[in-house]
Design goal:
By secondary structure, the chain is α/β, with parallel strands linked by helices. Helices cover 43% and strands 17% of the residues. Helix 5 packs parallel to helix 6. It contains 13 helices and twelve strands. The structure holds nicotinamide-adenine-dinucleotide. Nicotinamide-adenine-dinucleotide binds next to helix 1, helix 5, strand 5 and strand 7.
Length: 335
């Protein structure tokens, strides 16, 4: 089996590459990644030592390059490559349309002309929009994205479904809730708060801190994608989530508690524009059809993640000493 993983140097993609390279030594894995600010080859040291893994630096919107990889005879494509940060999509939406929509179209065109066995689009629960206090997103919830990021992901999902309906492309879409775990880029809530707390810097919390996200450990997400690419029914969407709804402020307080730091570090900042209030996933279809169950509960998963950041300071120090610092100051001001 030959698998092309795109965006495999990012947070979830690199966890997935390491997982799949380790689990299936008989498969060949090609990782295509443009190495944007979010891509980091440091995440892939484990895979780089294995003979069933190869890295290709390149952009998914580069049709010629993508075609040349498909000509090697791919069986499966898993598309993680994306601009993924909502805040960045508010300040600069254009790149989100190019990578997330046009890039997906390039991959779909190549998949269609090279008769692959499966195309998996890694999507997000954010395409469903925002929930009130009750209810869950199911696969039948209408798409109602609110940010340029989620709109671009919804656009890509619709293209994937259209290529299935129109050309019979064997596709699946996974829509996962918020992930956390090792190699998570420090602009996202959990690593940002861990690193600021470790440095005794203020922890910037948007609005009233009561926005709710449904957290899943990245390894549980990787296991779900593994099941979907091997057993998913063609054309189907699978929601991925572990019923771990938490208000942002609860997550922040739990991090402070585990690190034995004072709550006085919390600093409420002006809310994100169009900030969705609540996300919550109903994963019943994935559980009943494909037998998926999450392994981690939030408290132990968070504890493992905090320990990972404590044990790997050079990984995040290298990131926050570079361009990221400029972005941080623009977003939250100087600490
Ligand atoms: P990330 O930003 O950490 O990684 C994205 C990767 O894609 C980076 O390595 C980057 O270099 C690469 N990339 C960006 N543009 C590219 C291009 N044009 N060509 C090739 N590579 C390119 O993102 P992530 O958090 O790991 O998310 C991965 C995927 O999972 C995304 O599609 C995202 O929408 C989806 N998702 C993320 C979450 C989450 O909580 N992080 C939840 C659900 C779904």
């Amino acid at each position: 089996m030959k698998i092309l993983v795109t965006g495999g140097a990012g947070f979830i993609g690199s966890n997935f590459v390491n997982y799949i390279v380790r689990k299936y030594p008989e498969y060949q894995i090609i990782n295509l990644d443009a190495l944007t600010y979010a891509g980091n080859l440091e995440n892939l040291k484990e895979s780089e030592e294995k003979s069933n893994y190869r890295f290709v630096k390149g952009d998914i919107t580069d049709r010629e390059l993508v075609d040349s990889l498909f000509e090697e005879g791919l069986d499966i494509v898993v598309n993680f490559a994306a601009e993924s940060h909502v805040d960045r999509s508010i300040t600069n939406p254009g790149i989100f349309i190019s990578t997330n929509i046009q890039g997906t179209q390039v991959l779909l065109d190549a998949a269609r002309t090279h008769a692959i066995k499966k195309y998996v689009q890694v999507s997000t629960d954010e395409v469903y929009g925002s929930l009130g206090a009750e209810g869950y997103f199911t696969e039948d919830t209408p798409l109602a994205p609110n940010s340029p990021y989620s709109a671009s992901k919804a656009g890509a999902d619709l293209l994937v479904q259209a290529y299935h309906e129109t050309y019979g492309l064997p596709v699946n879409i996974t829509r996962c809730s918020n992930n956390y775990g090792p190699f998570h880029f420090p602009e996202k809530l959990i690593p940002l708060m861990i690193i600021n707390a470790l440095n005794d810097k203020p922890l910037p919390v948007y609005g009233d801190g009561l926005n709710i996200r449904d957290w899943l450990h990245v390894e549980d997400h990787c296991r779900a994608i593994d099941l979907v690419l091997h057993k998913g029914r063609n054309g189907e969407v699978y929601n991925v989530g572990g019923h771990n709804e938490k208000a942002n402020i609860e997550v922040v307080k739990e991090i402070l508690k585990q690190l034995e730091k004072p709550v006085s570090l919390i600093k409420y900042v002006e809310d994100r524009l169009g900030h969705d209030r609540r996300y919550a996933i109903d994963p019943t279809k994935l559980q009943t059809e494909l037998g998926w169950e999450p392994k981690y509960n939030f408290e132990t998963g968070l504890n493992d993640t905090i320990n990972w950041y404590l044990e790997n300071p050079s990984w995040w120090e290298n990131i926050i000493s570079g361009d990221y610092q400029q972005y941080y100051e623009q977003q939250y001001g100087k600490a």
